[in-house]
Amino acid sequence: MQGDSPRDSTAAAAAAAAAGSGGGVSPRGSSPLSLLGSDKEEQIMMREQQHINYLLLHGVSLGLLLEIILILMCLQTVSSLLIRILLLLLLQQQQQQQEEQQQQGQQNQQQMLQTPHLLQQQQLIARHHHQQQQQQQQQQQQQQEASVAQHRVLLYVHHHQQQH
After folding, report:
1. pTM for the whole structure
2. % pLDDT > 90, the chain
3. Residue 51 has pLDDT above 70, yes or no
4. What is the largest distance, in Å, between two alpha-carbon atoms of the chain?
5. For 143, which DSSP code?
């Protein structure tokens, strides 16, 4: 497909993977989600989580993934287990980003305390401030994207439950 953008082909791959094409089953107990129940359910969930992890490793954002899943849910090809996995991964990713940002701030503070010259301290402060601004902008954008996608999924699930 020559006319497709990389994002279009990534979205297509995400849709195919989310719909359950290919992939094996990871070892039992390798996921915090292995507490859900039957072996069959667990195998399905492990396979779905492998697809999600593959897509995340290849640059698909959780927001885009949630939107694809929402579309597939409209076509009734995705289980509610997959939605729970995605929401859990979304929360884990947000927590990791917050922890990384806190660690970066602590490292920058330690560097400032160890720097002997005022000029170097000012440069570190300016660099730290710039890094913080970039991280905050990136985190805000990701949180907005995740919030919108999460809100859409929850609305759909609520609407879907009312119909049944």
Report:
1. 0.33
2. 0
3. yes
4. 68
5. H
Whose tokens are 């170097």? That residue is 120
21 phi, psi to nearest 5 deg:
-85, 130
| Lowest-confidence segment of 58-72, 89-103, 135-149 by average pLDDT | 58-72
Distance CA 31, CA 27 (A): 9
Answer whether 76's CB lies under 8 Å from 20's CB: no
C-alpha to C-alpha distance for 134 and 131, rounded to whole angstroms: 5
> Could you tell me how many helices (H) and strands (E) the chain has, helices first?
5, 0
Highest mean pLDDT among 4-8, 19-23, 112-116 belongs to 112-116
The rounded distance, in Å, linking the Cα atoms of 37 and 53 is 21
Specify whether the CB–CB gap between 1 and 56 falls below 8 A.
no
Contacts 24+ apart (CB under 8 A), 52-59: 52/17, 52/18, 52/82, 52/85, 52/86, 52/89, 54/17, 54/23, 55/10, 55/13, 55/14, 55/17, 55/18, 56/89, 58/10, 58/13, 59/10
Q: Which amino acid is at 62?
A: L
